[in-house]
């Protein structure tokens, strides 16, 4: 793998990680702490939405982010010729 290819690979990798970390932060800190009062105006299955996000929803989002990360990294690996 050439230097240009390595730089492009790591740039794509870090860019993806930063985007997913921002989503993780917004969901966990934002929905669970900052916006909890606003979200508590709504209910999901009889539970206030802010509480639900703090206890359950953020976990579902995190698991979804893991699956998205693995799928996207597989494509990035293929694009840069470093797949297994």
TrEMBL record:
It holds the Pfam family DUF4212. Residues 7-83 form the Sodium symporter small subunit domain. The keyword Transmembrane helix applies. The keyword Secreted does not apply. The chain crosses the membrane at residues 16-39, 51-70. Keywords: Membrane, Transmembrane, Transmembrane helix. NCBIfam families: Na_symport_sm (TIGR03647). This is Sodium symporter small subunit domain-containing protein. It comes from Kordiimonas sediminis.
């Amino acid at each position: 793998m050439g230097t240009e290819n390595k730089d492009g690979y790591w740039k794509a990798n870090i860019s993806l990680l930063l985007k997913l970390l921002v989503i993780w932060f917004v969901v966990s800190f934002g929905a669970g702490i900052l916006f909890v009062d606003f979200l508590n105006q709504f209910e999901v299955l009889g539970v206030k939405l802010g509480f639900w996000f703090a206890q359950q929803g953020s976990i579902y989002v995190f698991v979804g982010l893991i699956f998205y990360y693995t799928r996207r990294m597989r494509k990035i690996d293929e694009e840069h010729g470093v797949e297994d």
